[in-house]
Design brief:
12 strands; Rossmann fold; alpha/beta; single chain
């Protein structure tokens, strides 16, 4: 199978590239390296089935050529991370909405299957749980940039679903909850690599807010395995799926577990949201997925516990060259 991965040099995209190549597929990775890193896929360059293209999903002519050559498109390219969204909201909106529209338009032109990576941010401040795919979205004011990412990804989902319903494009929507593993950077607010980097350096672990908010973390290897299965399963077309772990942990407890597993003497400090992000910042107090739908279709089940994930990130960051944050 010939595949195209937008955002292919990113954290998740690079792991998906590896898996698809191992399965015998051909992979073209498109990335403009704005948040992705060439180092993530450098070891794949030279592989007979791999091609890296330095470019943007906003370049319609380029996307046209690449989608035409592919049989399946994994659309992962997006502006991600709370800090990036808040610092560059207009750029993020353009990338996430217009970029997806271009990809879907080309998929329609060439009748290609598209897997669209969405996000648990879709659910906003809905603290019900575990969250099912048809749960209501609860968002704050549109004047708070915090909610622009959720809104943009919701538009992506709507576009994907309409292209499926009206134009017959075979689309699959996957809502990724917190994904963690090697190559993820803490530069854009990703909490585990940020905590691990602080713990290894002996610095205080900065917990935003009161730390009572809870999250669930899934290893990137489990994520990409599920993405590959969904792309090949005819029953996934026209559907949306939650993809995440149900091992819930409060951020305060997460910080303490990282300190312990890293053998660090670091302490925990609490940073007000207004100081960490922006005045009036709002966060979700709980985010737990219901993955029943995914389990029934492809037999999804996480293979790694949270402590295993943390250890993997610690080992990876300790092996990284000094000053390089992965």
């Amino acid at each position: 199978m010939k595949t195209l991965i937008t955002g292919g040099a990113g954290f998740i995209g690079s792991h998906l590239s590896e898996l698809l190549l191992q399965q015998g597929h051909e992979v073209t990775a498109l990335d403009n390296l704005s948040t992705g890193r060439y180092e993530n896929i450098a070891h794949l360059d030279g592989h007979a089935g791999f091609q890296f293209v330095n470019g943007s999903i906003l370049e319609a002519s380029l996307v046209d050529k690449l989608v035409e050559r592919a049989q399946v498109v994994f659309h992962l390219a997006a502006a991600v991370g709370v800090e990036l969204i808040i610092k560059r909201p207009l750029e993020s909106l353009t990338t996430n909405i217009k970029g997806s529209e271009i990809v879907l338009d080309m998929a329609h032109r060439y009748r290609r299957k598209v897997l669209v990576a969405s996000t648990s941010e879709i659910y906003g401040k809905n603290t019900n749980g575990p969250l099912k795919e048809d749960e209501d979205r609860i968002l704050g004011s549109p004047l708070k940039s915090r909610w622009s990412y959720s809104t943009a990804k919701a538009i992506d989902e709507i576009l994907a679903y309409i292209y499926y319903k009206e134009k017959g494009v075979p689309t699959v929507i996957v809502r990724l909850f917190n994904t963690v593993g090697p190559r993820q950077t803490g530069a854009y607010g990703m909490v585990i690599p940020r905590f691990v980097g602080q713990a290894i350096a002996g610095k205080p672990l900065s917990v935003y807010g009161d730390g009572k908010q809870t999250r669930c973390f899934l290893h990137v290897k489990d994520v990409v395995a599920a993405l590959a299965k969904l792309a090949e399963h005819a029953g996934a077309v026209g559907e949306a799926f939650n993809l995440g772990s149900q091992e819930e942990v409060a951020i305060n407890e997460l910080a303490q577990r990282i300190i312990e597993l890293a053998g660090s003497n670091s302490q925990v400090v609490h940073v007000p949201y207004d100081e960490a992000y922006e005045e009036g910042f709002e966060d979700m107090q709980r985010r737990v997925p219901d993955t029943t739908k995914l389990q029934r279709l492809i037999g999804f089940k996480p293979t790694r516990k949270l402590d295993d994930i943390i250890r993997d990130v610690i080992e990876t960051m300790r092996r990284a060259p000094q000053g390089v944050q992965r």
